[in-house]
Amino acid sequence: MMEPIEANYVPDGDDWTITIVGRGKTLTATAPGLIAARDRADQLVEELAGNEKNRTVVHRLDGDALEFTTAYLNARLAKPEEPAPATEEKPPATEEPAAETEPPKTAKPTEDELAQAATSS
Fold first, then answer.
1. Are 17 and 9 in contact (CB under 8 A)?
2. Helices 65-77 and 34-49, interaxial angle, to 10°?
3. Angle CA(76)–CA(81)–CA(87) in degrees, nearest 5?
4. Nearest to residue 17, comparing CAs of 37, 1, 47, 36?
């Protein structure tokens, strides 16, 4: 049985440092982001193992395979921020009379007005 190739990832600010160990060699590289680092690790494994058909690669984040798997899946499944939708030009609204919010107030007649109306009839 062949020994597995180990790929260890260490965050370095926004970049990642990748160290590949196996077959008596160690290869190191950096990449911007975890997904790019995983792709770069595959390239380094190809350099290290060549055409081996049966090879096992263990990916680790700071030495922990479960942490790498969790971080990698989160990076792959994270939705990129969507840009704000472009404002669409709306067709001009047809002009309709503005609805009144309150009914017009009718003034109540004063007692003097009532008395005057009663006497004038």
1. yes
2. 120
3. 150
4. 37
pLDDT digits (tens, 9 = 90+) for 41-97: 999 999 998 888 888 999 999 899 999 999 999 999 986 666 666 665 655 656 666
DSSP string of 43-87, one letter each residue: HHHHHHHTT-SS--EEEEETTBHHHHHHHHHHHHHPPPPPPPPPP
Sheet order of strands, 25-32 included: 25-32, 15-22, 5-12, 57-61
Token digits for 64? 């922990």
Consecutive H or E run containing 41: helix 34-49
